[in-house]
Amino acid sequence: MTDHRIPLAGVIGHPVAHSRSPKLHGHWLKTYGLAGHYIPMDVAPADLETVLHTLPKAGFVGANVTVPHKEAALRLADHVSDRASVIGAANTLVFREDGSIHADNTDGYGFMANLRAGAPDWNPADGPAVVFGAGGAARAVLQALAEAGVPEILLTNRTRTRADHLKEEFGQRITVVDWVQAGNVIENAELVVNTTSLGMQGQPELRVPLDGLQPGAVVTDLVYAPLQTRLLQQAEEAGCTTVDGLGMLLHQAVPGFERWFGVRPEVDAETRAAALA
Ligand code: ATR
């Protein structure tokens, strides 16, 4: 018998009120005239397992998971994609009809899709990338850069041991650079990525000299509030191509939406406006 129920999906976080995903998915559902709902769900860590096993029975076809549930969701899933396994966290879940949970991580995909859209001339093979930060966001970026074939990644983090651990996990292409030395290696970079929380509203700025950068280099910031961080302003002044972080958020949502609601959505200016509204 065909199931005619309206598909439900949503984002699970704690807190979740700040999430832009409901606006984004709501915009796409409306744009494509689809029957479906996408709702925010504030779930405490102790309740995650119960919620994940209840949602499929309540008509949910899947969910996004965000902080603090990304690692726990991976552990609770019945099947894990290779990229989610490499990143060590899930952000997109699909509930199959047999009740099993499939976990994926589309953050690295979103990062790369945003970069390719915003800097179409950037070629991964051209040269090294400098990556600031060694947290969860950095893991997704490293997975994407390694998969794209970037020949060398210079990784720097305030707490060096976290970067050293990522090198052990992600391998040969990574050279760890001391946080205070990062300014010295930046002139070789074809790509600079900020994965730290520096530059976010209410946080200190990421301060790094960009004058040595090649004018053709690309600078991207995962921070999207504000959209134009000091890093990106500086990069623009240095004649670099800049890519803001909002697009990563939008692109990472594409595979989940397609899976749950059956249409591959476009990321365009209207999508950006809807997510920011
Ligand atoms: P996420 O999952 O968003 O990456 P995270 O795991 O908390 O979050 O990582 C935050 C990143 O921002 C880390 O690289 C962190 O550096 P540390 O590992 O040294 O903590 C970086 N970060 C946060 N505040 C910072 C600051 N004031 N100066 C330098 N780096 C900072």
Automatic annotation (TrEMBL):
It catalyses: shikimate + NADP(+) = 3-dehydroshikimate + NADPH + H(+). GO terms for biological process: amino acid biosynthetic process; aromatic amino acid family biosynthetic process; chorismate biosynthetic process; shikimate metabolic process. Pfam families: SDH_C (PF18317), Shikimate_DH (PF01488), Shikimate_dh_N (PF08501). Residues 129-197 form the Quinate/shikimate 5-dehydrogenase/glutamyl-tRNA reductase domain. Coiled coil: none annotated. It is an enzyme of class 1 (oxidoreductase). One of its GO terms (molecular function) is shikimate 3-dehydrogenase (NADP+) activity. SUPFAM superfamilies: Aminoacid dehydrogenase-like, N-terminal domain (SSF53223), NAD(P)-binding Rossmann-fold domains (SSF51735). Pathway: Metabolic intermediate biosynthesis; chorismate biosynthesis; chorismate from D-erythrose 4-phosphate and phosphoenolpyruvate: step 4/7. Belongs to the shikimate dehydrogenase family. Homodimer. Involved in the biosynthesis of the chorismate, which leads to the biosynthesis of aromatic amino acids. Catalyzes the reversible NADPH linked reduction of 3-dehydroshikimate (DHSA) to yield shikimate (SA). This is Shikimate dehydrogenase (NADP(+)). It comes from Ruegeria conchae. The gene is aroE.
